[in-house]
Amino acid sequence: TISLKSVRQAVSAAVPKPSNTDLPATIAFSKRTPVTIDKLVAAWNGYAENIKQSSPSISSLMQSITPTLVDGEAIGVVVKSAVQLEQLQGMTHPLLDHLKSELQNTSITINFDIDTTQSENTKHIYTKDDQLKDMIRRNPALGKLLSQLNLQIE
């Protein structure tokens, strides 16, 4: 009869044991290829294209953002709102893995920040009269149309 013990011993004798010399040399060392802004933008846009089917909103958000390179290995990403920040931070690990692989640099990091100047410069329009004035300012033909039709805001 054949026992499991004898089969296990025969298999372990037939399969060679891996040695440390069989491991690839790239595992022992981290890659630190210099990163350029062109390579960074290409890798960033490549990832945005890769996730287009699974996460179209995040893909669109990424395509609207241009990352910056700070100190050669830190990537700066400035978003317009806390919602955008939360969306990108939720996918930091897969994004960072992709960038490290594409840029061949395992030392890069990503720093997210919210653009506070955007919210300070935004004027909120509260009344219908203010809205109309703003629309006429952006499109003077609207003002002419209102006067020709003798229309007024109530």
How would you describe this protein?
The protein has 154 residues and is mostly helical. 54% of the residues lie in helices and 10% in strands. The protein has nine helices and three strands, in the order ααααββααβααα. The protein has a three-stranded mixed beta sheet. Helix 3 (37-50) packs across helix 6 and helix 8 (128-138) crosses helix 9. It is elongated and about 105 Å long. Residues 23-29 have low confidence and may be disordered.
Outline of the structure:
Helices cover 54% and strands 10% of the residues.
Amount of helix: 40-55%
Gyration radius, in Å: 29 Å
Number of strands: 3
Q: Averaged pLDDT, please?
A: 81
> Ends: how far apart?
99 Å
Uncertain stretches of 5 or more adjacent residues: 23-29
- Strand order in space, largest sheet: 1-2-3
Structural class: mainly alpha
Q: Helix count, per DSSP? A: 9
Into which percentage range does the β-strand content fall?
Answer: 5-15%
Largest sheet: 3 strands, mixed
Keywords summarizing the entry:
154 residues, mainly alpha, 9 helices, 3 strands, three-stranded mixed beta sheet, 10% strand
Topology:
Blueprint: H1 4-14, H2 25-28, H3 37-50, H4 56-63, E1 68-70, E2 74-79, H5 82-89, H6 92-103, E3 109-114, H7 116-121, H8 128-138, H9 140-148
Parallel strand pairs: 2-3
Antiparallel strand pairs: 1-2
